[in-house]
Amino acid sequence: MTPITEVEGRRIALSNLDKVLYPASGFTKGEVLHYYAVAAGSLLSHLYNRPVSFLRFPDGPDGQRFFAKNVPPGTPSWVRTAEVPRRAHEGTLRQVLVQDMASLMWSANLVTEYHTPQWQADRPGVADRLVLDLDPGPPATVVECCRVALWLRERLAADGLQSYAKTSGSKGLHLLAPIEPTPSEQVSAYAKELAVEAERDLAGLALHRMTRSLRPGKVFVDHSQNAAAKTTATPYTLRARPEPTVSAPVTWDEVAACAAPAELSFLAGDMPDRLARHGDLLAPLLNPNRAGPVPKPSG
Questions:
Q1: CA dist list (Å): 24 to 9, 34, 116, 244
Q2: Residue 235, preceding peptide bond in cis (omega within 30° of 0)
Q3: What's the distance, Cα to Cα, between the start and end of the chain in Å?
Q4: What would the pLDDT profile of 19-52 be if each residue is shown by its tens digit?
Q5: In the prediction, which pLDDT does 150 show?
Q6: How far is CA 148 from CA 118, 199, 283, in A?
Q7: Which of 127, 209, 263, 273 could form a disulfide with 118 if both were Cys (CB 3.0 to 4.6 A apart)?
Q8: Which InterPro entries does this chain map to (predicted)?
Q9: Residue 287, φ and ψ in degrees, nearest 5
């Protein structure tokens, strides 16, 4: 029998709680739900009012994975949704808004990674944050990503933008900066200029092009996730990796000191202590007073 629990007055069916989803560590679906409950205070702040795309992996990271933007079949009527534009000239679609603990637990029961755009549901295509995804090409690792991140931090600061870092939960690092509401097209163009400049100033280390043959040993500065149609792993989401890794905020001191990939790899079990010690390191992203204007691209 599927257990029913009540969360904030909503009845939610939680299924297969003993199912092992991460065989490398024996981490179960019940532990996934527990993690999301523990991280909810911070995670919900970054999900709020942003249409959610789900990467679902109901049989674990080695099983079938599928990315879903549309509202899943069987979504309860009390889960809030928003109609958002598709790509140009493709109409609209309806997506879930994870606004509270009840909708978080309902969606986490589907076994998901959470991915969100850089804009909010009431202002689609108008970004309030900039993101740069630093993706290392082997044998480069997150250590090399940290070197690029520190350069980008200073470059953004020169333009009046404060930046913050989190692990991708996979191999790389994400940089985020709160910005004044700006059309995604302008943010994308500025982010591309930053990536091109990083490649020029960090010759042999940074790369602004996705071309696979160019990437070994370098860090790809992916600027494309600023496009209105793109999404990025939400802070604190679990990832579909062999172990329950988290896209975890990190301090700039941790970035500067990183000498080995293991130093910036965090599991679900690490997060309660980190949250107790640091709080939400990405809270400044939620403060409009921290937002800076995005320079207009030079081109």
A1: 36, 18, 28, 9
A2: no
A3: 62
A4: 999 999 999 999 999 999 999 999 999 999 999 9
A5: 98
A6: 22, 10, 23
A7: 127
A8: LigD_pol_dom, MtLigD_Pol-like, NHEJ_LigD
A9: -105, 110
Strands (E), the chain: 4-7, 10-13, 20-22, 27-28, 53-56, 66-68, 81-85, 92-96, 112-116, 126-136, 164-167, 173-183, 206-207, 219-222, 232-233, 249-250
Report how far apart, in Å, the C-alpha atoms of 69 and of each of 10, 111, 128, 230 are: 23, 15, 21, 11
Query: Is the pTM higher than 0.90?
Result: yes
Helices (H), 48-183: 101-108, 142-158
What element of type H or E holds 37?
Answer: helix 29-47
pLDDT tier at 3, thresholds 50, 70, 90: confident
- Per-residue confidence at 108, pLDDT binned at 50, 70, 90? very high
The SS3 call for residue 212 is: helix
Count of all residues that appear for the chain in the document = 299
